Every structure is written in C-alpha cells, then in structure tokens.
Amino acid sequence: MSESSAVKNLGIPADQGSRPTTPSPAESAGGWGELFSRRFAAAASILAGGVALYAMNLYFTAALMPSIVADIGGERYYAWVATGFLMAAVIASMLVSRLLDRLGAARAYVLGFLVFGAGAVVNAASPSMAALILGRVVQGLGGGLVAGLGYAVIRSALPQRLWTRAAGLVSAMWGIGTLVGPSLGGLFAQLGAWRGAYLLLLLAALVLAALAHRVLPGPSGDGPGPGRVPLVPLVVLTLAAAAFSVSSTVPRGWATGACLLAGLALLVGFVLAERRGPATVLPHRTYRAGNGLKWLYLTVAVLCGGVIPENFIPLFGQGLGGLGPLVAGFLGAAISAGWTSAQLFSVTITSAAGRARAVRTGPVVLTAGLVAYGLLQTGEASGPRIALWAAVLFLAGTGIGLAFPHLSVAAMSSSEDPVEGGKAAAALNTTQLISYAVVSALAGTLISLGGEDLLASARYMTFGIAGITLLGVATASLTARRAR
User: Fold this and answer.
1) Considering only CA atoms, which of 119, 82, 278 is closest in space to residue 205?
2) Which of the four pLDDT bands, split at 50, 70 and 90, describes residue 388?
C-alpha cells in the first residue's frame, strides 16, 4: 500500500485501507492568486471572515472588560465572561458536521452568523453582568459554529491544490482577529463606547451571513446523517473548565489546590469518557493505538495555549508600563502579529521535511519568546523595555505561525473519506476552543497567585503558560517524526 497523503504531509497515519491519489504537479501548484481569483475569492472570504470574527470577538471583549465592569459592575464574575463564551463555543463546534450534513454550508453559516449577532445585541443592551454573560453564551454558540465551519468547509468549497493556502488563510485569521480585537477594543474603551463595539460586531455578522447565503452550496445529501452528541464528554469538560475558573476566585491555599486537582481529574475523566463512549468530541480515530492524530491535536492545543497571554498583556501594559488602553491593546496584539507574519512564510514550504521542521520548531520558538517576556517584566517599565516586550511577544507568535498551517492540512488529509476528513478538520477548531477555555481559566488562577503585586502576577502567568507550551516540544516531535 502506498503512503497516505497525511503521511506525505506530516506523517499522520490515515485509516488503514485508504488509497490516496497523488495530486498532479498542476494541482499541487495552487497559489494565492488562484485562491483570491474571482472563482474562489468569495468562498475564501467567508471561511476566513467567520474565524476572524470569532477570534476578534474573543480579545475584543478582553480589552473592553475594565470599561464594562466600571459601568455595570460584576467584577466577581469577570472570569465567567470568557468561560461562558468559550464553553458555549466548544458545544457548538460539536454540531458543525451535523449541521453541514443537514443544512449545507450556506444555511449553516447563516445560522451561525445570526446567532452570533443575536448575542452581540444582548451584550450591547446588557444592564448587568448576568445579562452580559448570557449574551456571551449566545455569542459563543454562534461563534463556535462559524469558526468550526471555517475548517470543515475547505474540503467541499475548494480544490485540494488550494487546501494548504486556504488552511493558512483561515488559521491566519486567528492572528488577524486577535491583532484587530485588542486594538479595536482598546479604541472603543478609550472612547467610552463599549456598547457600540458590539453593534459593530452585529453589522459584520449580518454582512457575512448575506454573503454566505449567496455563494456557498446547500446540502449535498451524501453525508451519514447527524450522529449522537457526545453529552458525557462535554459535561465533564465543562466541569473541568468551571473548576479551573473557580480556582481563581477562592482563597489562595488548599482551596486553590483542590480546585486545580479537581480540574485535572476531570480532564482525565474527559479522556476516559472519550475513549470509551459511543460519541466523542474528537474523532474516534484519535484514540486508536498508533494513530498520530492525538499528538497533532495536543500540539495544536499547546500552541493555542500560548496565545492566552494576549488576554492579560493589555492589563500588564497599563499597570507596569503606564500605557493607555489603545496602546496597551496594540501591545497585546504582538503575539498575533508574529503568528500572522510567520504563517505567510510557512505556507510556502512544500517539502515534507520542511513542514516537519516547521512543526518541530514552532513550540520551541513560542516557549522561548514567552520566557523572554517573563524575564523582561519590571515595574514602571521604560519605553525601550516595552519595545523589547513587543519584540519577544512577536517572536513567540512566529512559533505558532510556523507550525499551524501544516498541522491543519495534516488533519484534513488524515483520511481519504471526505466525511472523516471533515470531522478531523472540524476537530481542529474544537481543540483550539478547549485549549482556550482551559488555559484561560488556568491563567486567571496563575494571576491570582500574585495577589496585589501585578509584577508577580505577570510572571506567574507568563512562566506558567510557558511551561504548558514547553510540552509542545515533545508532542510536535511525535507529530512530525514520520516526515523525516
């Protein structure tokens, strides 16, 4: 049997019995010009726009939260604004393949954008933190759907020769969105217009919904039909995220440790439920002995965990560097800027050895950048010191951009069955959302360890997350080893 296309991409073994066809040189040569040609530009814009809207909103709210709390109160529930959004997004991502089969790409996208917009309306009108959290849950349901569709629809909307470019474009939107989000959020915060910020998101969602309705296909009718929703793993995962979130609100000491241990135990329970259950969050193949998808998803998880400091860098920039909300927002976007810049280069790597090298190098660069940022932390930082912060954060982001597009393509190519390939691609988004939810909750706990000392909080958070990304050095090596 010949090697599968997944092995050729990064050494991720496809299901036994699959027999890929080797693309012709012409098919392998799809470039940016073709992706943005009149034939494919609209579809590519929707795929990218949905992910950008989700990613922008994630960090948009982080930049707005000080202004929101000052207006409507509820600082005790600060962490739940992010946790509610992220866990709702994880749940919605479970519905991607089912809605695609039943509704088709166009209607699934329209549904996602409209639900996202409805959540934005609730946020803009929120009189209290409870109402804001409700709006964020609704936004998370719509956002998780459109973000997952961004990967799952690549296979059906574009030819295989454009998959690498499209995966690079879609994953770059996480960088673009997190670049624009903190900056735009900081601008609205500085203007004192946080409610208007959510109305802007509503407008963007409506425009993308109209475009999706016009250019994307309807249901194909050749899918297997909707399967069971993995309720048990989702419940266990939600409880794990809640335990990590609560750990940042209880008194430091044994209570914090108990919450963290409970969260870790629930994560183990999630894996056990996945391995034994009839319905799973990640593809069943992930848990088979010898299947490399588990290392791929773990690598994606630790890389995405490295983005979480962007939620808190604006806070540190204001408190330790004396920056205003807008400039602090730009500083918070430095990781995303590095992610996007490196990705534009990384998608041009065509050899299997080069792709494997990029995947192995990514977590090393990411961890080095985060460690450097932690070491450079100081109170009342000078202008040159703040510039160094931006430089090492940009470096950290390049580690994500080097590896991410090749991991995306390897997941999509892990099966010649288009349904299974679509599930594997959609699971990339699920993995990202799980990582964001869990690492965000852990970051809140790490920050709380510093107490009133903002410098100590910055270091606890940065070095703690660097310890997580360091695990990616091992998982990335296992992901790429067959490409040697």
Assistant:
1) 119
2) very high
Distance in angstroms (rounded) separating the CA atoms of residues 64 and 312: 12
Task: Tell me the pTM.
Answer: 0.73
Which pLDDT band holds residue 456 (cuts at 50, 70, 90)?
very high
Instruction: Give the up-direction half-sphere exposure of residue 480: CA atoms within 13 A in the CB hemisphere.
Output: 26
How far lies 158's CA from each of 20, 66, 162, in Å?
Answer: 18, 42, 6
Task: Give one DSSP letter per residue of 347-415, joined into a string.
Answer: TT--SHHHHHHHHHHHHHHHHHHHHHHHHT--TT--HHHHHHHHHHHHHHHHHHHHHHHHHHHHHHTS-
Selection from 195, 458, 459, 188 nearest residue 329 by Cα = 188
The set of residues, in sequence order, having a beta carbon less than 8 Å from that of 199 and lying 6+ positions away, is 120, 124
CA gap 60, 178 in Å, rounded: 8
Tokens of 1: 């049997």
Integer Cα distance of 400 and 340 in angstroms: 9
Confirm if 473 and 364 have CB atoms less than 8 A apart.
yes
Please state, in angstroms and rounded to a whole number, the distance separating the CA atoms of residues 458 and 253: 19
In 3D space, the residue among 178, 279, 173, 284 whose CA is nearest the CA of residue 232 turns out to be 279
Phi, psi of 441 (to 5 degrees): -65, -40
In the numeric block, which tokens belong to residue 252? 């430091």
| pLDDT value of position 178 | 66
Residue type for position 476: A
Helices 293-305 and 454-480 pack at an angle, to 10 degrees, of 160
**Which residue in this structure is represented by tokens 């950008």?**
52
- Extract the tokens encoding 307: 């983005």
